[in-house]
Design goal:
18 strands; 12 helices; TIM Barrel; alpha/beta; ten-stranded mixed sheet; binds pyridoxal-5'-phosphate; Lyase, Ornithine Decarboxylase, Chain A, domain 1
Length: 385
Amino acid sequence: MKWQTSKIQISRSCFQSNLNFINSLLGPETTMSSVVKGNAYGHGIEPFVQLAVESGLRHFSVFSADEAYRVHQISRDHDASIMIMGMIPDEALEWVIDNGIEFFVFESNRLEKSIEAAQKVGKKAKIHLELETGMNRTGLNEAQLLDAIGRITSNENLLTIKGVCTHFAGAESIANYLRIERQKTQFLKLSQIVKNSSMDVPFFHSTCSAGAIRYPEMKDRLSRVGIIQYGFWPSYETFIEYSSELADKSDPLTRIISWKSSIMDIKQVKRGQYIGYGSLYLAGKDMTIATVPIGYGNGYSRSLSNMGRVLIRGTRTAVLGKVNMNLICVDVTDIAGAERGDEVVLIGKQGRMEITVADFGDASKQINYELLTRLPHNLPREIVD
Ligand SMILES: *Cc1c(COP(=O)(O)O)cnc(C)c1O
């Protein structure tokens, strides 16, 4: 891949500063599993995992076997643990077990298939029992758990139990308080059944970013940390609540991603002329416009038509008219000296100005998580200081 019209940069120093914050949050007893599903929340699995490994992280969580494969390519020489929380096609199980990849078991089928595959490969499958505690998505209920314990204890030569876990149904929102409290109680109850069995379990884990922040009593020895390592709060209210008790209200997290393009062309438009498709933008004065080679086909949402903002020469300026498939027009009338080749920041900082993912997300009605993971996979990503 080369000659792309925009690129993503990932900041090493900002990542390190987020890790410092996360370490202070988790404390020395809790291992962080770096959640890199969704192409590392759009940051790119390969560069991000490389950066994480260099920063000392040795535990990664992904949704599916294909993501585990990509993480493994990068982390294999560093003795890192990889944990699959979701989908594994049956035909991938042998590779998963052979390479020591850990995975969630939330239904009896997968347990059976794991036992068979472990036998074939001649290695133990490393499993985490996912428990149903109230999210009602995936997980073993009490009866299924008892059944699983029976099958695990009679196949101890083929299975290693690495963890027992659950996931909270919206820990980032105070409105879900009661539901999460019930889940906590249920998790502790079901965990006790496991503790009373003969199984020896190294990790009990239930917290995501919001859980680690809002339910520190649940962080245990492993926490699955996603969004905050990239410098985003799980929700605005999580930050408000977190900082409400603190004298210092400054944000301890820093976004590590920037997305940049450049000016392709400049032209003059006379007062009274429409700019771009249709009649969405009418020049109310003589204007200078710049075209930038990114559009909805490159991940720049159409809902930012007439709404988006970009940075050029340290100035925040507006997207004029419709976002096209591969182009936007922006106003450079008041940006002295703007010329072909100038850097255009779509997300991130330039000088003292910043376009945040939230600015972007609000305008396009997407939450951080969605916007980030929809950044195209084929954009080049580079690590910068
Ligand atoms: C995505 C995910 C996480 C991480 O969530 P964040 O809010 O990004 O920290 C943790 N656990 C599970 C099961 C997940 O799917």
